[in-house]
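One example given next:
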Amino acid sequence: MYDSVIVKCPNCNEEHQFQTKSGECNLDVYTLDNCPDDVMVNVNRHSPCRCDCGVFFEVNKETRTAVLTSGRLK
């Protein structure tokens, strides 16, 4: 199982679901504001995320914000 963190695209604010397998993994859903630290550990395991608006982004774990990246999908 996993937990999800809802992250808004930094370009268009569309919501995306980032899955993480750190923490208790009870299929809980969090936002960047209320996500426990242990769940944030591998929030970027499928990053970068490509939004429908065309940008790539991931989570800056220290600031708990979505940030644009210049990479390709893994």
Q: What stands out?
A: The chain has a mean pLDDT of 94. Residues 3-69 form one domain.
